[in-house]
Amino acid sequence: MVGKIAKRMFVAMIFTAFIFLLGFYASSVLVESKFESLQRAQDEIQIDTVSLEIESSLLAENPCNLAGLEELGARLGDLGPKLDYMEKQSRAKDFENLKKYYALLEIKHWLAIQKSNRECNSNYTPILYFYSNSECDGCRLQGPLILELKAKNPKTMVYSFDVNSGLPAIKILKGNYKITIVPTIIIGNKKYEGYMGSAELENATAYAKSG
User: Taking the CB of the first residue and of the last residue of the chain, which one, N or C, has fewer CB atoms within 10 A?
Assistant: First the structure.
């Protein structure tokens, strides 16, 4: 009787160990697969940022290439959410650096849009959105509303900047516009501090266009 009990316990232990090892193996495979997926995504984003940098430099030679400016703006807009998602999936330093590089591309495009408005009589409405990922409840609501506004107005160009970024260029922008709270939105050349609802955003954009 004792022998049968010991045999059953031994079999149970073997089965438990097998299940544990199987679970450990499956977990390892999933982790490795996720890592490889993140690595591929990172490589693709790096290629995209380099390509956007080259396109931006080419467009700087011809600020009146409005189709090119709009296409580049759209591609920048598509890249932003990808970076945000990847940053949440991985805290690797590389993604932080890519985010900073993306911000520099945004500034470069914003400068090109301003030059186009001055020299080519284009009617783009640039929006600078200053936000923070910490201690800013309004920012979580504000971002989607601004993207919704952009979707309705193709001539509206949106550029988002994290006020906690250590980039000197963003510090200069903060100083130029005297950014002290978040969210803060610059529409045209007018500053709006604090959260803005959809109607307020649309009215402010219409005012900037009329000016």
Answer: N
3-state DSSP call for residue 162?
A: strand
Per domain, the residue ranges of the chain are: 1-121, 123-211
Residue pLDDT tens, the chain, 211 long: 545 555 555 555 565 554 555 454 444 434 344 445 445 555 566 666 666 677 777 777 777 888 888 888 888 888 887 777 766 666 555 567 778 888 988 998 999 999 899 999 899 999 999 999 888 888 989 999 998 998 888 899 999 999 998 899 999 999 999 999 999 999 988 999 999 999 999 999 988 887 6
Alpha-carbon distance values, 95 to 49, 102, 193, 199 (Å): 12, 10, 29, 35
Rounded distance, CA 188 to CA 205, Å? Answer: 8
Closest CA to 66 of 147, 121, 146: 121
Long-range contacts: 63-66, Cβ < 8 Å, 24+?
63/112, 63/115, 63/116, 63/119, 63/120, 64/116, 64/119, 64/120, 64/122, 66/116, 66/120, 66/122
**Cβ atoms 112, 64 nearer than 8 A:** no
Q: Which CATH architecture has domain 123-211?
A: 3-Layer(aba) Sandwich (3.40)
Residue 9, classed as helix, strand or coil, is helix
